[in-house]
Design a protein that fits this description.
heterodimer, A: 114 residues, mainly beta, 7-stranded mixed beta sheet, 0% helix, 52% strand, globular, B: mainly beta, 6-stranded mixed beta sheet, 55% strand
Chain lengths: 114, 110
């Protein structure tokens, strides 16, 4: 499976500010995904990011709040904008496997908003 | 109705026993089924996937799929304390999107 890194690994932010999370993969992948895992809960898909096109957002998530970039086949960013304490969560990127079915996750970014 | 349902647990099994984790899903069009293991403070790790009805074995792990009953399970033989984690069931439905269950916490006791 691909090696996936995320930056930052954790951060503490003030409400009203924005944080950009980076996801880097060691091989080219078509599909990258961004998830949120709130405390004690399972994973919720925020959006799917394809290179060269706009991200596709899931119900309940909007581009103004979670803008995503996908400049090439190995990199993506997720920005959490105008943060509130409710945005405190783990944010995870994932990439599709070689079989285009499986997904592999990065280590995650732990975000605490005060 | 939740799309993917799991018993939250904790499921407690003694070391060496078989742990049985269960998952049901609502979308009859689901094609692919996955089990992820998540240790506390870590990201999910893919441990098994199954696409066809029946059993699939990989080491101590066996995934079982019954599409007619919309049911998928994971058996862990010879459970070890290192197997203690939360196990997430995930299903690919329409549009190839993964939908996760809330996970079952497994505790393997000495």
């Amino acid at each position: 499976s691909a090696v996936i890194s995320q930056k930052p690994s954790r951060d503490i932010c003030q409400r009203g500010t924005s944080l950009t999370i980076q996801c880097q993969v060691d091989s080219q992948v078509t599909m990258m995904f961004w998830y949120r895992q709130q405390p004690g809960q399972s994973l919720t898909l925020i959006a799917t990011a394809n290179q060269g096109s706009e991200a596709t957002y899931e119900s309940g998530f909007v581009i103004d709040k979670f803008p995503i970039s996908r400049p090439n086949l190995t990199f993506s960013t997720l920005t959490v904008s105008n943060m509130s304490p409710e945005d405190s969560s783990i944010y995870l990127c994932s990439v599709e496997g070689w079989d285009l079915e499986t997904q592999y996750f990065g280590p995650g970014t732990r975000l605490l908003v005060l | 109705q939740k799309e993917v349902e799991q018993n939250s647990g904790p499921l407690s099994v003694p070391e060496g026993a078989i742990a049985s984790l269960n998952c049901t899903y609502s979308d009859r069009g689901s094609q692919s089924f996955f089990w992820y293991r998540q240790y506390s403070g870590k990201s999910p790790e893919l441990i098994m996937f199954i696409y066809s009805n029946g059993d699939k074995e990989d080491g101590r792990f066996t995934a079982q799929l019954n599409k007619a009953s919309q049911y998928v399970s994971l058996l862990i033989r010879d459970s070890q304390p290192s197997d203690s984690a939360t196990y997430l069931c995930a299903v690919t439905g329409t549009a190839s999107k993964l939908t996760f269950g809330t996970g079952t916490r497994l505790q393997v006791t000495l």
